[in-house]
Amino acid sequence: MDKNDPAYRGQSFYREWFLRIYDPVVLGFFAHRVWRCPTEIAMEQYRRHIGVRHLDIGPGTGYFIERAGRKPDAEVTLLDPNRAVLDYAVRRLAPRAVVTVEADVMKPLPIEGPFDSVAMNYVLHCLPGPIANKAAAIANAAVTLTPGGVLFGGTVLGSPELHTPLSGFFLRAYNRQGAFDNLGDTNKGLIEILGRSFESVATQVHGSVALFVASVPRRLI
Ligand SMILES: C[S@@+](CC[C@H](N)C(=O)[O-])C[C@H]1O[C@@H](n2cnc3c(N)ncnc32)[C@H](O)[C@@H]1O
Q1: Overall average pLDDT of the 167-189 stretch
Q2: pLDDT in tens, 73-107
Q3: 172 CA → ligand 1 middle, Å
Q4: Among 14, 27, 160, 175, which one is least packed by beta carbons within 10 Å?
Q5: Could you tell me how far CA 89 lies from the centroid of its own chain?
Q6: Which atom of ligand 1 is nearest to the CA of 120?
Q7: Model-level pTM greater than 0.90?
Q8: Cα–ligand 1 centroid distance for 85 (angstroms)
Q9: Which residue owns the Cα nearest ligand 1 atom 9?
């Protein structure tokens, strides 16, 4: 990705060394102690919604896909602008064959689908704000779904009332550093951008995180 692209900083941190410590640090310590949304809750959402043809946008280490209990005939596509992420997740998921696509979810996606499910887990808070800007990512995901398909995921919100002194400290630090761009992200804003592309939208707030599920892509009505 071009260094001047507004989405560059949100994906540039995911290098090999960081991916090696990602699961215990981010999905362990940060999810539980800082954002207060235990990883089991997000995993439960994966288990419930992952479909036979699944697209994972921003797969990170591939932790959720590996443990979600895919069906034997499942076909998985991983999409990320960061080659190190794709390579890491492919190794993690081996010997299962997966398709990889090096692309930025903020731009029209170079894939057709259709997919039964699309996950965008802990990706929206990395995308360039304000939240209205992130509607492009939701719309790009929506067009890859079957009429009965579902988009699901989670994102750290910026709303001050959802933060403890500890999570507020990291929220501000990551926004300064550029890994996050979510200070203005609210649950209401999230519902609004999901609602532009989907007829049915549900969110649940756990700690500083909103988990979301969206179905019935609007273009298909
Ligand atoms: C916090 S990690 C989440 C990883 C994984 N989904 C999880 O829940 O553990 C953010 C992921 O989003 C990816 N990402 C960041 N910006 C992106 C963009 N513009 N388009 C697609 N993926 C992006 C990163 O490279 C990384 O894989």
Answers
A1: 97
A2: 789 999 999 999 999 999 999 988 899 999 999 99
A3: 19
A4: 160
A5: 14
A6: 6
A7: yes
A8: 8
A9: 60
